[in-house]
Amino acid sequence: MQRSMAIRATIVGIAANALLLVVKSVAAGFSDSLVIFSEALNSLSDVVAALAILVCVRWAWQNPDASHPFGHRRAEPVAGLLVAMFIGILGFEVCRTAVTDLWASTHPEHIGVAPIAALLVTAATKTAMTFYFKRRAGQLHSPAFRAAALDCRNDVLISVQGLVAVVLAHYQVPVLDTLAALLVGVYILYSAYGIGMENIDYLMGKAPDDELLGDIRRTAEQVPGVVEVDDIKAHYVGTFVHVELAVRVDGSLSTVASHNLAEAARQAIEQLPMIDRAFVHIEPAR
Questions:
Q1: Which residue from 237, 212, 50, 71 is spatially nearest to 144, judged by alpha carbons?
Q2: Structural domain harbouring 247
Q3: pTM (whole model) above 0.90
Q4: pLDDT (tens digit, 9 = 90+) per residue, 6-44?
Q5: Which of 36, 141, 191, 210 is the most buried (most CB within 10 A)?
Q6: For residues 70 and 196, what is the distance between their CA atoms, to the nearest angstrom?
């Protein structure tokens, strides 16, 4: 169910970005505006990023196999890291273009209505995609879709900035727009940094927050027969968590009874959201 939902979401992203690429390319053919030409290149990069997400998401939801006994969930943050790289490239290009325009006061000779229409369609579409991917990210605990949602939000900002650029170019006052574009570019670079660091943490096996560790401890302590919970260690494997812990039980219990208690604790912990695997060690109570 979740796998099909993830794949559908990536296909929606590919289709929407491909449609916007066509719209912007057609608009660029009817105008001298560099803004709409840059937007077309941005949509091309969005299509490439969406294809990368599709490949990684399909890989991430494959079942464990002999070469990957704990599954392929690390493919999700790989996709998120790729999106962060595309966002960073976009931010750099926005900043570079803004700085260049500050030195060269060039204006397009012909704007026309086509770029304005294309940018309005882009802003509306990307706004809808932002909410769509944000919802899917929450449902699937997916850093790739969180990155996609943030990328769409950045595209909305770029589209709005592009609309302002077209209007100001028409009135021959592009300086204010150039300064605004520079600020937008810096913001995009900052968001790319945040996405990149988040997904690097997933790939490096960062420990989850204290709230989840507390939930793990309380869940194990509620299992009948558990005297004490000790030495909890947890880390991300992709977007889900593996946890290892020791539970202390009555030392007089038989091997079978201790094993059954460990299984009960494992099953209870693995019912928690975000927990993929739990490894429970039995030790005698002090």
A1: 50
A2: 210-284
A3: no
A4: 888 888 989 998 999 999 888 878 776 666 777 777 788
A5: 36
A6: 24
